[in-house]
Amino acid sequence: MIERNSTFKSGFVSIIGRPNVGKSTFLNRVIGQKIAIMSDKPQTTRNKVQGVLTTDQAQVIFIDTPGIHKPKHKLGDFMIKMAMNTFNEVDLILFMINAEEKLGRGDEFIIEQLKSVRTPVFLVINKIDKIHPDELFATIEEYKDMLSFQEIIPISALEGNNVGKLLELINEYLPEGPQYYPADQVTDHPERFIVSELIREKALHLTREEVPHSIAVVIDQMKVQENKNIIHIMATIIVERSSQKGIIIGKQGKMLKEIGQRARIEIENLLGSKVFLELWVKVQKDWRNKASHLKDFGFTDDNY
Q1: How confident is the model over 3-21, as pLDDT tens digits?
Q2: I need a labelling partner for 139 at 20 to 30 A (CA). Which of 172, 262, 276, 283 fits?
Q3: Is 272 contained in some domain?
Q4: What's this model's pTM, rounded to 2 decimal places?
Q5: Residue pLDDT, tens place only, 243-293
Q6: CATH number of the domain that 56 lies in?
Q7: Domain range holding 108?
Q8: Structural domains in the chain (count)
């Protein structure tokens, strides 16, 4: 436990917003290491990812929720339900928007949901490094009368601009409370979950538009080899169609090998050990619409 004064604060902060506004980038920036996968594809985050930031004054538990969007399958329903269930379970809500994008239906939908919430809400305008300062004022004017935001903070999660100021404001709004997690713990997710997410991230990056969000990753085995400082990981990449399996494997297995090589580097950084990674690819037709498969792949009501 860290040494702390009598006014130590702690609390839970939900990060919400439309897909691809930079929620995971912000979380990784704040925590100081990668615990949430990042992609320029919408709806990359599927489970609530909890990141823990501990200082000598406070402990903040951030919840990075899936981007709120119109669901097209049962997995989408799960993602939206999970994001919105956090509204009344936290001490503070960060509603993040993309400074480059105009106010859209998705933002209006989120604001409507927030009108019935008693939890304090910050409007966080991300990606300010991508726009001219004059455009920022127009965005603030557009949003400020739509909801009674406690604070409006422009930031760049990628560059780190104004992130420190945002953290100061968050601390001001947190209640006094206990330290929930050890000071050196940065997430409540098990290593298996983060390993599977790192593999899925590389598959998303490398296959681009060819295999959208029909990818899941299951860790079949993760154990330390005897007498060696090597962790042996066996994982299966799940896709929905045979054609997608061919894309993931690639010509003469080159794509699967590249996914494995890139994932292994980050997994070794995460685990602090040499890793032997074996990847397999399996087809489970229409798995995103089948409750049994969603449960097998970790998407259950138990997650929230």
Answers
A1: 445 589 999 998 988 878 8
A2: 172
A3: yes
A4: 0.62
A5: 888 889 999 999 999 999 999 988 887 777 788 999 999 888 766 655 554
A6: 3.40.50.300
A7: 9-173
A8: 2
